[in-house]
Amino acid sequence: MAENFDVKLDSKTYIPDPSYLENSALGDYKKAYAEFLSDPDGFWAEKARELDWIKPWDKVKEWNWPNARWFCGGKLNISANCLDRHVKNGRRNKLALIWKGERGKEEIYTYRQLYRAVMKFANALKELGVQKGDRICLYMPFVPEHVIAMLACVRIGAVHSIVYAGFGADALHSRIKDAEAKIVITADVGIRRGKIVQLRSIVADAVRNSPSVEKIVVLSRERCPIELYSEMEVDFYAIQEGVSEECPPEEMDSEDPLFILYTSGTTGTPKGIVHSSGGYIVGAHYTSKYIFDIKENDVHWCTADPGWITGHSYIVYGPLSVGATVLITETTPDYPDPGIWWSLIEEFGVTIFYTAPTAIRMFMKVGEQWPEKYDLSSLRIIGSVGEPLNPEAFEWYYRVIGRNKCPILDTWWQTETGMHMITTPLGQPMKPGFAGVPIPGVVADVVDKEGNPVPPGQGGLLVIKEPWPAMMRTVYNNPPRYNHYWNQIRDWYTVGDLAVKDEEGYIMVIGRSDDILIVAGHNLGTAEVESALVAHKAVAEAAVIGIPDDLKGQAVKAFVTLRQGFVPSQKLVSELTYHVRMTIGPIAMPSAIEFMDKLPKTRSGKIMRRVLKAKELGVDPGDISTLEE
């Protein structure tokens, strides 16, 4: 896609009630941003001091392009910052987690109860031989034990790699193998839209030819003993019997790895993004407190899953580090009806609600009668994450869900950034379609491919010009892929998104500039879907593009050439769609498959997806001088 293009900017604004600015933890945005620019290290040191450190840092930052070290020499433990300090400082009986299952079951954990559950499971992992630095793969439904397992890993210094439970066996296998996971933690089943998902059998398939895996920990959803089929399998609760409830937190260096999270890349192999302990928690804590403005009495609900970075930063580590009450649920937005989420907001008095534009557009489609049935007056702040929030969805969200009073935090950030980077801080004028401005602590700009800032109204490439604490540290087992983020434009972090700025510096993110699709807020690499298609015996070559979709933002369309002896048919379309589902998961299923005699390629043999996309959308494909024919 061309880097430079003109965008018609709508200047409509919404001004929040002045009380939001008066009461916000961040305060005046321009003043806070100026203070950051005048002393960046001092700004981050002040935020880091809000956390508990076992040993203070010697130096805030070391920046040797493209590698950064933050809070050098500092020692801490993130589970202690999410649990111990609240237990000791007056929040021991405060609700930490409220869980609502799809079948109506509820569970609650106070900070004290969560603290004890985490220590017990941490000791059980130690009994299985888990040591600091070992990788643990979590493939779990969204139940309280998922959060307990995350925090237990962190407590003993194990590095967790969470795989979304919607992925299939092949996708899970590749992530287990790349991370060289020692333990896999799963459940017998997941429950989604009334259906049982056999997670345990998917794991059984995925661990074949995975020599690193020593044990599979299986949670019984009904808390009753289950028959363990393999010598590798152990029961989640049985392994905790008789273990101590005291587990001192492991002393972690600020730069020790915290977790690996796989995200789609422009090649077929997902990238294992590695985040560190100190810098990551400072970023997650700062943005939860100062951007979400979480207060003592808030009930915070982020509708993501821990399998995505949003779940790491804004369900678990950020909100718990500030001592919030967090609602978690396995319910989907439209089951058993499209009122379920609004009923949960009413029932639990949710004050901060954070969801994806895909969900908002789905709610727009089914009609206002659903939210109108419920009392949403508890809401104070509503947020959006995962993809650009289009102006129509912004207007509906503000009017129907926010009841014309709640500020919308439309946040731009990535798995790689670890924390919010661009939004409209609380109390600032909001502009539909614009994510907002760089938050204090972040230096962002929109530039051309030579690195020159582009004028307002002209599109360009979004870049981050300075390091920040929650930045990823490397790509697991593949440092050159990390360097690629920093060596494309003038030593800056190139995010892979196209954007445009207005006269006031507000940034609108347009979409990806590379071969990444964002389907219902989930990142998918075109190459990963193409690899799945080509693995089918009928397929010779495949190319995948994203096409506009009213609900998902983008849908997957595949173009396929067949091997000799196979002919196009509706049956084959169904077969290929099912094959992608079983290989990667439902989110990657093509909404359409078109059979072609040949795919457009450059003379060097590279498939030109741009030509396919231009044809699909009925637009000029631009320069096709390198096209083979």
Spell out the blueprint of helices and strands:
Blueprint: H1 18-23, H2 29-38, H3 40-48, E1 59-64, E2 67-72, E3 75-76, H4 78-88, E4 95-100, E5 106-110, H5 111-127, E6 135-139, H6 144-156, E7 159-162, H7 169-179, E8 183-187, E9 190-192, E10 195-197, H8 199-206, E11 215-219, E12 233-235, E13 252-253, E14 257-263, E15 271-276, H9 278-290, E16 299-302, H10 309-321, E17 325-329, H11 340-348, E18 352-355, H12 357-366, H13 369-372, E19 381-384, H14 391-401, E20 408-410, E21 422-423, E22 437-438, E23 444-447, E24 460-464, E25 474-475, H15 479-486, E26 493-501, E27 507-512, E28 516-519, E29 522-525, H16 526-534, E30 539-549, E31 553-562, H17 570-583, E32 592-595, H18 609-617
Parallel strand pairs: 4-17, 6-7, 6-8, 7-14, 8-11, 11-12, 16-17, 16-18, 18-19, 19-20, 31-32
Antiparallel strand pairs: 1-2, 3-13, 4-5, 9-10, 14-15, 15-25, 21-22, 23-24, 24-26, 26-27, 28-29, 30-31
Helix pairs in contact: 2-3, 4-5, 4-10, 5-6, 7-8, 9-10
Task: Sum up the structure in keywords.
32 strands; alpha/beta; Rossmann fold; seven-stranded mixed beta sheet; eight-stranded mixed beta sheet; 629 residues; GMP Synthetase, Chain A, domain 3; 29% helix
